[in-house]
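Bump. Still looking for Kinase structure tokens.
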Amino acid sequence: MGMTSSGSGAGTAAGSAPVGLVLAIDAGNSKTDVAVVAADGAVVGAARGGGFRPPAVGVEAAVDAVADAVGRAFAEGGVSSVTHVSACLANADLPVEEEQLAAALHARAWGASVEVRNDTFAILRAGVAEPRGVAVVCGAGINCVGMRPDGRTARFPAIGRISGDWGGGWGLAEEALWHAARAEDGRGGPTALARTLPAHFGLTSMYALIEALHLEHIDTARRHELTPVLFATAVDGDPVARAIVDRLADEVVAMATVALTRLDLLTEETPVLLGGSILAARHPQLDDRIHELLSVRAPKAVPQVVTAGPVLGAALLGLDHVGAQEEVHARVRAFYEEA
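Sorry for the wait, here they are.
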């Protein structure tokens, strides 16, 4: 189903929570947003915290970081627990991880029930009027999910090359480095990336950049800075850079088409949401290529970029769970879209 739920029994505090009160959590690798949504759709408490990285720090430490933001949102809303916790979490890529994270959140007694999904579902739900459609997210990594109102979902493990993934900011930076290194030493064809990538760090050769990265004179985390350089080089007409951008478009459309097929939506008019920093940037070459390929492979797909914050999606999924009326959904959406 693409999610893991944990039922009632969280303790007295959760049991006395106002009916319909939802705690929405969108926890990404770089930041966490939480919101307390009242039964009428009013956002009565909200807070932002740091990144959610269980693989790096462990589940309990990662949940501790979320707990800080939840505590501040609860204090603002004047509540101590909720009816339901809707958590869309980075690194919840496999069912076993969702189960582990759902148990960890349930143990905090924030709500009588807990539902954990991968954070890509928050992007999808934020962009659609009902839980129906497909979303492709390309930020640091790449992922795709789809859902239907009957609860059917489509998803990918999305844990890197071992699960067949290609793309995302980190992957694009590595691909650009690979081509640039081979261009400089003669193993590959020429590309302006051999000049533009090292120049970004004030260096004059790929050899110098390779050395600086290997010896960590340049922090590993800064590799993501090379992705915008790749796109700028493509805009200037470099064939290799443009080919990488086209390949990303192919990957986005392949994931979306497979998800639509799995959900029997390929022949129905269906939203295909594009999110994450790379897709939201609306790079003309990438954007045009995605639309071109979708028109051939999934002509009924309706592509659109999601601009609303993902915590909106987590909130709407929570409201779906508690059976909130459409006007309640509309009030939450208006709050975030106006903000």
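Confidence is low (pLDDT under 50) at residues 8-16.

Edit: fixed formatting.
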